[in-house]
Each structure stands twice: as structure tokens, then as C-alpha cells.
């Protein structure tokens, strides 16, 4: 369960669930969206898959009350880039005589990280953690911490690409983390402050990795201890006792102890560990088609240039 560090958000469970095919029309921008289906639900609102115009799909988050979405909207518009849009529209809609705020963002196709790993195998954990570090590094470079790293906020596409969703917990570096989930929160583990910084998110990635690799039962048994008995060392011990953690043990240890200053540094070391281990060979065929294609086309180009030069 996500926790708000500043204020508690009153969830209005009474908001009507929109049926498939329902229309949502923005009062100010006058854009209309058709609901395809419900994608998910959180404390701030419900997220629907919608189509706009020529079948273009997007994700629309309908908030429970006027204040709940504003900070998310502000943040997404601050992150917006021409080559990488985060926010497509923000408006209010009138539904059943009441006004609700909503915003529209790119639709991320995929399943929750836990469902993906359950289906495709535990070795994917190593790959997905690496991708998470890369996504976080991108965000950190703009001066933001993600905050609420948890399985519900990580979607993985069919081809195995991980994407972070739910930017409601993103906080400026140096501020307090706005939203977090206890299991992955270093404050909960007495392993550091709730200051938004790179090491906060890196800890959460390591805690998530450890929970996935060691198993929920063993991880949660430690999480359920009384506060005085929860500590970083406890997690490090769990990592050491778990054979599946071995390939990335040095990363887990450093991340849990807050010894990485940047996601980039963590990522470099993480990549080296995977290379050294070499245990992901079984997954490589999944990546091979485009690699092979790239190799063949550069080889053909090389031979053609050589032929031209020699003739
Ligand atoms: N852009 C998106 N594309 C596809 N699915 C999405 C997208 N954004 C959110 N979802 C789905 O909707 C769910 C709820 O969305 P979100 O996490 O933003 O709500 P929330 O109210 O902030 O939740 P929480 O209480 O966890 O903070 C997500 O777990 C995810 O499954």
C-alpha cells in the first residue's frame, strides 16, 4: 500500500466506475475520449484505456477530487519533452452532475512486473532490475526521484521492456519523498532518510529485487518485525543467504547500504556483474533477431564498400 508522507489523501470510493464505451469530454480543451476498459486503480483515481479520434490509444487517469491530480499534472508537464511526451492533455469532465479532474498520458502496454516474471521465469528479474536502474537514471538526471518504486508501478511489455508508471510519487531532489511503499522504503528499514535522492530509489530497486529473488515470505517475515529490529544489515544478510542473489550480491549490498551516489554508477557496476556472471545466456535468443539483423546489415555494408573501393 502506498503511503503519503505529507498528507493523507481521502479516497472517494463512491466515484462511479465508468463503463466501457463511456465518453469523457474535457470542459476546457473540448477533447472527447472513449473508454475502452479499466486499466487499474489506485488511491488517487482510476486509470482507463481510452481512444481518441482515429483509434489512437492513451491512458486517462480520472481523479477522485480536484486537488488529487494537480501535483501529478504539474510534474508530468515539467517532465514533458517533444521527443518523449508524458502528458497529453489535462482537463475537467462533468460526470453525473459532478466535476472530476483528469489527465491523459501515453498508454504503456504491458503486464505488472511480477506477472511477467511468473510467466517468463525468474532470470528476467536480473534484466528488469537493470532496466529499472536505467529508467531511474534518466529521471534522476532531470533532478527528480521516483519515490514509489513497487511492482504495481512497473509494467513490462511482451518483448521484455520495463516502464515506470504512476508519477504521483516523484519528488524534486532534496525534498521529502511524497509517496512511498513501506516494503521498499529505506526509512521503514531504518536504512536512511526519506530525502528524495538517487540512493533512495536505488535502495527501493534493491529491496524489490531482493523480495523477488528471495521470495515474498522470507522478505516479508523481516519486514513484519518490530521497528527497532528492522535494519539494512538484515536485508544484506537475507541477500547473502539467497543463492539466486549471488550474481548481483555486490550491487544489492551497496544499494541497501546507500553507497551509490547515482543510478548511473549503480548501473555501470550492475552491468559488469551480469557480464561477469554470464548466466543470462538462456535469455539471449529473445534479443537475437535484431542483433543478428544489425550484424548482417553492417557486414553487407562493409563488403559493399570494400568491393567499391577495390573496383
Ligand atoms: N500510462 C499507463 N499505461 C497503462 N497502465 C497504466 C498507466 N498508468 C497507470 N496504469 C495502471 O493503472 C494502475 C493505477 O494507476 P496509478 O498507479 O497511477 O494510480 P494511483 O492512484 O497513483 O495508485 P497508487 O495508489 O498506487 O499510488 C497502475 O498500477 C497501472 O496498472
From TrEMBL:
An example molecular function term from Gene Ontology annotations: ATP binding
Protein's UniProt keywords contain Manganese: no
Transmembrane intervals: 290-310
Protein kinase domain ranges (all copies): 33-275
Keywords for this protein: ATP-binding, Kinase, Membrane, Nucleotide-binding, Transferase, Transmembrane, Transmembrane helix
Binding site for ATP: 61
Pfam families assigned to the protein according to its UniProt record, in alphabetical order: Pkinase (PF00069)
SMART domains, sorted: S_TKc (SM00220)
PROSITE patterns (alphabetical): PROTEIN_KINASE_ATP, PROTEIN_KINASE_DOM
Listed InterPro entries: Kinase-like_dom_sf, Prot_kinase_dom, Protein_kinase_ATP_BS
Gene3D superfamilies documented for this protein: Transferase(Phosphotransferase) domain 1
SUPFAM superfamilies assigned: Protein kinase-like (PK-like)
Name this protein carries in UniProt: Protein kinase domain-containing protein
Organism: Xylanibacillus composti
Lineage, opening ranks: Bacteria, Bacillati, Bacillota, Bacilli, Bacillales
Amino acid at each position: 500500500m502506498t503511503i503519503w508522507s505529507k498528507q493523507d489523501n481521502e479516497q472517494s470510493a463512491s466515484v462511479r466506475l465508468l463503463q466501457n464505451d463511456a465518453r469523457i469530454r474535457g470542459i476546457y480543451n473540448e477533447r472527447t475520449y472513449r473508454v475502452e476498459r479499466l486499466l487499474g486503480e489506485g488511491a488517487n483515481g482510476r486509470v482507463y484505456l481510452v481512444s481518441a479520434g482515429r483509434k489512437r490509444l492513451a491512458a486517462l487517469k480520472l481523479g477522485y477530487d480536484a486537488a488529487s491530480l494537480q501535483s501529478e499534472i504539474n510534474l508530468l508537464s515539467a517532465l514533458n519533452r517533444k521527443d518523449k511526451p508524458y502528458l497529453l492533455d489535462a482537463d475537467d469532465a462533468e460526470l453525473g452532475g459532478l466535476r472530476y479532474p483528469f489527465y491523459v498520458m501515453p498508454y504503456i502496454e504491458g503486464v505488472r512486473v511480477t506477472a511477467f516474471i511468473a510467466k517468463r521465469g525468474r532470470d528476467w528479474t536480473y534484466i528488469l532490475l537493470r532496466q529499472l536502474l536505467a529508467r531511474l537514471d534518466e529521471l534522476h538526471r532531470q533532478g527528480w526521484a521516483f519515490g514509489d518504486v513497487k511492482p504495481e508501478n512497473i509494467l513490462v511489455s511482451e518483448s521484455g521492456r520495463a516502464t515506470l508508471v504512476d508519477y504521483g510519487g516523484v519528488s524534486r531532489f532534496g525534498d521529502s519523498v511524497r509517496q512511498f511503499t513501506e516494503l521498499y522504503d529505506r526509512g521503514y528499514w531504518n536504512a536512511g532518510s526519506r530525502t528524495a535522492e538517487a540512493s533512495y530509489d536505488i535502495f527501493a530497486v534493491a529491496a524489490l529485487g531482493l523480495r523477488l529473488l528471495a521470495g515474498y515470505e522470507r522478505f516479508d517475515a523481516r519486514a513484519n518485525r518490530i521497528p527497532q529490529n528492522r535494519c539494512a544489515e538484515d536485508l544484506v544478510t537475507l541477500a547473502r543467504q539467497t543463492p539466486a542473489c549471488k550474481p548481483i550480491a555486490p550491487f544489492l549490498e551497496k544499494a541497501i547500504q546507500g553507497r551509490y551516489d547515482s543510478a548511473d554508477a549503480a548501473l555501470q557496476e550492475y552491468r559488469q556483474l551480469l557480464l561477469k556472471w554470464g548466466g543470462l545466456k538462456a535469455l539471449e535468443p529473445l534479443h537475437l533477431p535484431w542483433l543478428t539483423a544489425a550484424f548482417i546489415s553492417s557486414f553487407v555494408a562493409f563488403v559493399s564498400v570494400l568491393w567499391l573501393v577495390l573496383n
